[in-house]
Amino acid sequence: MVEIKTDASLDAMRAAGRVVAQALTAVREAAAVGSTLRALDETARAVLREAGAGSPFLDYHPDWAPTPFPAVICTSVNDAIVHGVPDGYRLHDGDLVSIDCGAALDGWVGDAAISFTVGRARPDDVRLIDTANEALEAGIAAAVVGNHIGDIAHAIGRVCRGAGYGIPDGFGGHGVGRTMHEDPGVPNEGRPGRGMPLRHGMVLAIEPMLIGSGTDRHFTGHDGWTIRTLDSSRASHAEHTVAITDEGPRILTAL
Fold first, then answer.
1. Is the separation of the CB atoms in 255 and 21 below 8 Å?
2. 179-216 pLDDT, tens per residue?
3. Is-annotated flag, keyword Hydrolase (predicted)?
4. Could you read off the pLDDT of 68-91 as tens digits, one per residue?
5. Tell me: the pLDDT tens digits for 109-135?
6. What is the 3-state secondary structure of 155-214?
7. DSSP H/E element including 242
8. Most exposed of 55, 103, 195, 242 (fewest Cβ within 10 Å)?
């Protein structure tokens, strides 16, 4: 069931989304060669704590996961696509890092992700990250009243495939609101004009994920959480929480 949010609810979700943006900004600023992933998680925790917000990630335990998630951010490095668990790994020069973060404030949730490089960036990584952001922008541009979920999926997939990148099958965006994962699902590839029609008050987490080598294949790492590319190629992830409104897409997790 898809919950249609009121305008007041969208404003409340914007407050949660702003906390997410602040946490992602703080984590990116703290990420440097030698920083541990666990320290980045502590940085995000401090931002949530200061804002009086909770984490929809912490202790999240879907049926497929062996254990509850132990952190407030996902830290996916290099060949990790999504769901990376922060640990004692120290960032190296040239690492590609994707950070996914959520915040729960006054009963509403925001969810967003960014990717960036630490130290000297490889040109291929810059292109991969830029394309993920371009795909996100295309998906957001298609998130308008009168379009369908398939229009968002098609816009994202066209950018990713056009650049020669893979799209991990089985992963994509989702509805968001009172909880982190709500209906409807938002695939990263699809046919325009298909799927649920978009209405004022729907809120979607739109999140392209790209695999640099062009393959779609992936596997779950030994921790039971981290999704990695099968061929060890690098991956990138970008995400915003977006409200569908009669005035056009409203990005709720912008800084």
1. yes
2. 999 999 999 999 999 999 999 999 999 999 999 999 99
3. yes
4. 999 999 999 999 999 999 999 999
5. 999 999 999 999 999 999 999 999 999
6. HHHHHHHHCCCECCCCCEEEECCCCCCEEEEEECCCCCCCCCECCCCCEEEECCEEECCC
7. strand 240-243
8. 195
What are the C-alpha distances in Å from 48 to residues 20, 22, 52, 113?
8, 9, 6, 16
Residue by residue, DSSP assigns 56-112 as SSTT---TT-SS---SSEEEEETTEEE-PPP-SPBP-TT-EEEEEEEEEETTEEEEE
Residues in a beta bridge with 99: 75, 114
Exposed / middle / buried, residue 172 (Cβ in 10 Å: 0-12, 13-18, 19+): buried
End-to-end CA distance of the chain: 30
| DSSP class of 243 | E
The first and second tokens of residue 255, run together, are: 């800084």
Question: What are the tokens at 20?
Answer: 């997410």
Residue listed under structure tokens 């020069």: 93
Laid out side by side, the sheet with 80-82 consists of 80-82, 227-229, 218-220
The per-residue pLDDT for 57 is 98
What is the CA angle 19-23-26, rounded to 5? Answer: 140
Structure confidence at residue 1 (pLDDT):
87
SS3 44: helix
